[in-house]
Amino acid sequence: DAGVTQSPTHLIKTRGQQVTLRCSPKSGHDTVSWYQQALGQGPQFIFQYYEEEERQRGNFPDRFSGHQFPNYSSELNVNALLLGDSALYLCASSLLSRQGPTRLMNTEAFFGQGTRLTVV
Amino acid sequence: LAKTTQPISMDSYEGQEVNITCSHNNIATNDYITWYQQFPSQGPRFIIQGYKTKVTNEVASLFIPADRKSSTLSLPRVSLSDTAVYYCLVGRSYNTDKLIFGTGTRLQVFP
Questions:
Q1: Which of chain A's residues have a Cβ under 8 Å away from the Cβ of B42?
Q2: From CA B64, how far away is CA B74, in angstroms rounded?
Q3: 3-state class (DSSP) for residue B56
Q4: Alpha carbons B8 and B22: distance in angstroms, whole number
Q5: For residue A58, what pLDDT is reported?
Q6: Closest Cα of chain A to B1: distance in Å?
Q7: Helix, strand, or coil (residue A26)
């Protein structure tokens, strides 16, 4: 059973360029969350995708966008790269289950190994 | 979400028991306490979760006092491979809408 897989593992981009990172969730999971982790810091929540829509978003500018495909895989896009975007980008998958008519709850999140993005 | 405070770093030797304490004074009634482990260049990995008293699994134990304003992650007989960053998170059980990580505790185990 494959866990969460991310590609590429490493990437170097130039300021102003655009980048796309990819994530395949753990088998059986339907929800993908993206995190940014700067050196020496804890991961920071970017956004979460469920049913091909952005379900929740953290405090990140619109340069950060995403997409989820029908097979639950996801992409993170960052436009107009800044030096400060250099970080480890982590993808986490989980399963969103219905707890009642209106309540959804996520199961435990599993993280991928991340993509190390360096902006020069 | 409740803010957590933990030591920035800790050192230990192989075979010793390591206890990492986390403070969460503003924990809500519905909040659980969850600990993650992260090795360099890898994503965080769930270790243990608890609500009150004591929880034990094959990896660690989690001690939570009655007032729940703090918690202690206990790693028995650590090895070099336990060198990692340990994060304490507070929130609803398994609710992964938005995991809030602090800077964590960097544990270094020496031979």
A1: 111, 113-114
A2: 11
A3: strand
A4: 11
A5: 93
A6: 13
A7: coil
